[in-house]
């Protein structure tokens, strides 16, 4: 019988301090997340220096909880995996240096993991992958389409040329005076509003799988501004619904087209915006007309966590990838 | 008793290993290169050279700042994680106190400082007594002008120690004249061996809640607090 692979994951790329233990890349043994969202709310967004300070305060507490919850000792752990990028550099540094210290103290292999690979592998904690698969990653920092032909291989086929989808949500939310984080509020308003405004869709060149949301964002801002000048009132729920319709239309259409072109056997959705009900419904509607299975992880695996890092790290570890004690945080790490 | 001392709070990267009161190994660099990349390899190499394995360590001492926010966090994250994983005590020592050790036998007061930009410094003032360094001014983020005004009133000789001494040398001499003592280069660089010594007999800090000594709020937080205060006064 093959021995189980037990991996410790650490994630500190943004505003969640997280540690987790995952078995064989598919089974969560423990998953601890200390969220800083309450602290950042007063600033209307994540403040990097504050995030880094919280990470130092939380890191060993979160690690201890992850080990205790798992009821495991160090001798059972095969490797330490950690998000090395992309993300906020000061925040990443806390996790990376903690991981290196643990790897040294316990003489364990160390593996640096790409944050987006983590988001993709969050899905493997729910259902085994079938290749080739297509992953749509949507979050505050990312909007990407990644094609995977096998484990640990990532081919970027489309990405945003300006704002990430989640960034556009946050900016529009601010225009509508919605509290931070704005995404869920837009989603909530969109559900009760109607698409009364025809906002543009950025399809870009024929055949491109890239995205662009800055034009849409400007269109929303102009619309609100012009209405104000003319003394008209627009219903915020209608603005939200019209904005969300444009985002969802582009994301779902391009994802479906790529899924067909590359003949994938699975489509998986990852990242914080995967929690968006409008996007989920849009994708489900589009893919229900095909026989391609669509996987969207449960909410707590969509947002940043360390189980996803341990899951992606398990594959990297099994494929023999190792990081040295000179591992650094890389805020603009490329997915390879 | 094997003690590992770590200082990445400023440009100096320092690692020392003490066996009881003896320094058995020390690494010091004073170059503008990435602490995050170099710290663990430096620890690893020094441990190999002195022939110790991680589980033979009995105590971790870390320079907790003030200094570069990022630098302090690199050392602190590493030190806390080591102490927690090895289940050994950790002690945080002020980076200013470590620097003050270079004037341990100075007959007068000792003013270690780090430049905090725009005329501000992180500083505290120490006096060397028979058996220890005693702080006489609390560590603060304060204008150099204000520090010098207080030191002029002391009417005593003052030893200035700082890697940023060049920035304030003239200002210091103008204010204190002959009472200012400014030594040569190597005295301005904190030594990790002294960090280890400072932490050797000190009681352990709680590992989980030990945090850097930034001496300054994050800018966003300071602005937020100010806005809250303004609101209170207006409302
Ligand atoms: Zn993320």
TrEMBL record, chain A:
Keywords: Acyltransferase, Cytoplasm, Iron, Metal-binding, Transferase, tRNA processing. The keyword Transferase applies. Pfam families: TsaD. Fe cation binds at residues 115, 119, 304. It catalyses: L-threonylcarbamoyladenylate + adenosine(37) in tRNA = N(6)-L-threonylcarbamoyladenosine(37) in tRNA + AMP + H(+). One of its GO terms (cellular component) is cytoplasm. Residues 27-310 form the Gcp-like domain. It is found in: Cytoplasm. GO terms for molecular function: iron ion binding; tRNA N(6)-L-threonylcarbamoyladenine synthase activity. Its cofactor is Fe(2+). Substrate binds at residues 137-141, 170, 183, 187, 276. It comes from the Bacteria. One of its GO terms (biological process) is tRNA threonylcarbamoyladenosine modification. Belongs to the KAE1 / TsaD family. Required for the formation of a threonylcarbamoyl group on adenosine at position 37 (t(6)A37) in tRNAs that read codons beginning with adenine. Is involved in the transfer of the threonylcarbamoyl moiety of threonylcarbamoyl-AMP (TC-AMP) to the N6 group of A37, together with TsaE and TsaB. TsaD likely plays a direct catalytic role in this reaction. This is tRNA N6-adenosine threonylcarbamoyltransferase. It comes from Oceanobacillus arenosus.
From TrEMBL, chain B:
Residues 30-174 form the Gcp-like domain. One of its GO terms (molecular function) is transferase activity. Gene3D superfamilies: 3.30.420.40. Keywords: Transferase. GO terms for biological process: tRNA threonylcarbamoyladenosine modification. The keyword Transferase applies. InterPro entries: ATPase_NBD, Gcp-like_dom, T6A_TsaB. One of its GO terms (cellular component) is cytosol. It comes from the Bacteria. This is tRNA (Adenosine(37)-N6)-threonylcarbamoyltransferase complex dimerization subunit type 1 TsaB. It comes from Oceanobacillus arenosus. The gene is tsaB.
